[in-house]
Design goal:
Blueprint: H1 3-14, H2 22-40, H3 43-60, H4 70-89, H5 106-115, H6 118-130, H7 134-145, H8 150-157, H9 161-189
Helix pairs in contact: 2-3, 2-4, 2-7, 3-4, 4-8, 5-9, 6-9, 7-9, 8-9
Length: about 190
């Protein structure tokens, strides 16, 4: 969807066409849900968070000036709403300490992943992503699944672009190590 379409629908909503807001829900709800569920690890709670985030978005729509993409603005609301919920519930979301990556094994990981079936690959990658911190999961999701720029991700997460680069680099290293270990295990079992 384009920024122009977002602007058209925003203006329609601000002029009183409340039904036009469904465009934003239809367009952005899936990734908004993905961001929330990766952090809270609970489908129902993530759905509640996304619903609340869209309500916040609707009530704050007049404050959206178009300095960034609408999606960036919305995902920032979702991300911070999710973090607020986690803090409110005082849940501890575990993260796994990962050893340094051995760069010589990256080719082995990539070759083994090519052999796996698509669904199994997605399952393994999804499980590996879940071991990352909330912030790293969000950065990986926005960068690889939504194809957002580093600057847009920085705006959503509330850190500098340089910091996003560093966290993205570290998260990729961790994912490679997790995937390498899991693939070694699969190879041993075969």
């Amino acid at each position: 969807m384009t920024n122009q379409q977002d602007t058209i629908y925003r203006d329609r909503v601000l002029k009183g066409d409340t039904n036009a807001f469904s465009y934003f829900v239809d367009t952005y709800q899936q990734l908004a849900f993905t961001i929330a569920v990766r952090i809270v690890k609970n489908r129902e709670e993530a759905e509640d968070i996304v619903q609340e985030a869209f309500i916040k978005c609707y009530h704050s729509l007049a404050s959206f000036k178009g300095d960034a993409k609408f999606s960036t603005w919305l995902y920032k609301i979702v991300y911070h709403s999710t973090l607020d919920r986690v803090r409110k519930n005082a849940k501890q979301i575990p993260s796994e300490e990962i050893e340094k990556i051995n760069y010589n094994l990256i080719d082995d990981v990539e070759d083994a992943l090519d052999i796996l079936e698509k669904k199994e690959r997605e399952k393994i990658i999804g499980a590996a992503i879940e071991t990352l911190t909330n912030e790293e999961q969000t950065i990986i999701t926005l960068y690889y699944y939504e194809d957002l720029s580093l600057k847009e991700i920085a705006t959503i997460v509330g850190i500098s672009t340089g910091n996003v680069k560093i966290k993205l680099f570290r998260a990729r290293k961790q994912l490679f190590e997790i995937l390498r270990c899991r693939i070694e295990l699969v190879n041993k079992l075969q």
